[in-house]
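Let us practice reading a record.
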Amino acid sequence: MKFGGTSVADQEAIRRLIAIVRSESARTGPPVVVVSAMSKVTDQLLRMATEAAAGERQHIASGMDEVLNRHLAALETLVPSDRRDVVAKQLAEQIDELRAMLTALSILREGSPRSLDGVAAAGELLSSRLVAAAIAAAGIDAVWVDARRAIVTDDHYTAAVPLTSETRAALAREVAPHLAAGKVPVLGGYVGATCDGVATTLGRGGSDYSAAIIGEGLAASEIQIWTDVDGMLTADPRVVDAPQVVSHLSFGEASELAYFGAKVLHPSTILPAVAADIPVRILNSRKPEAPGTLITARPPANDRPISALACKRNVTVVEVTSTRMLMAYGFLRRLFEVFERHRTAVDVVTTSEVSVSVTIDDNRRLPDIVAALREFADVNVEPDMALLCAVGENLRADPAFAIRMLAGLEGVPLRMVSQAASRRNVTVVIRDADVARAMARLHDAWFAATTPSVGVAR
């Protein structure tokens, strides 16, 4: 059971979490609970780390006090006084360690990825200690487990990759005995450590990924992602009015939707679940009675042409043109090696007679990428673009869908069009300014005339 930042945001949210855990424990036995940092805490910590690395230390003391006091305020209402002092001391020690790291950054003027991970990990370590104590105080036998001892990763700091066999062994050592004893283990998500014990993080949104890794490593019967929405929706609610909950999705559909912008699920989450064929359920911690979305290998058949729409905003198109090199052996290898060298993922690729166009959503290394590409080709960059993606297993049996989708976008300038080899999605690249009208038009065409999806019995 993974609970996101809004599901542990304050004492009221944590009380809802406790009620959900109590209900699940009675229904299926003790679950493993994975929690994010309190909402906005990780952003605050990373902002302070950036300031410290620039030599600005004036906000360290006040920032640390603010983070600590937020956790202590929740602790005071959730844990009785006779148990509170021990946990308060643990939280204060974590803050002291964090304060020392930030002070060191400000003195050294250094903000390496390794240092940032050490700072960022603190949010989950604090929240998981608090939640474990709160669950235990509510009469549920819960125990805190240090995620740095349970998930073993490589040393690609800020985007670490879990080491499968080492993590399975760590989970068997650190978590499984507690489950066998009838206890509820509580861990921070997003956090792991190298084989040498140095703290790492799995990338933003990585708490979902943590839950899936733990679920796979412990052969869980189900992975639950508790968030603040009712499940996966037919479209982004910030773009389209009144989207519907999708009751069932396949693993493939959920992966595509997460990758192409659906914010409910981290793109990597589904991978360990797919490998172990573990169902994933997305649920609303504010409405635990709602059925949510169930993601399985083989969902029930339906007659909708697509399952949902997704969009990814603030995308950049990079067009690489070379009349001399395009058809030469090794050209594409050389092109994509540039993106690999600068650790920047490519989303969509199209080719023409003399050019290759790709989209990226991470511009941090774009100047270096462009400079490297210009060593052997002409480069044009188009910012402020977006991906709009239609996803559904039924696309495999509908060869005319792409034609109907493009017809529905008449009048919207299209920069790129792509259909995946899996034939599970059709993606167009358009101007970011056109996303709202384009998505609303497609959503009206395929979902407005249908009744909302029927809920799944749990």
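A brief commentary: Residues 150 and 173 are 8 Å apart (CA to CA).
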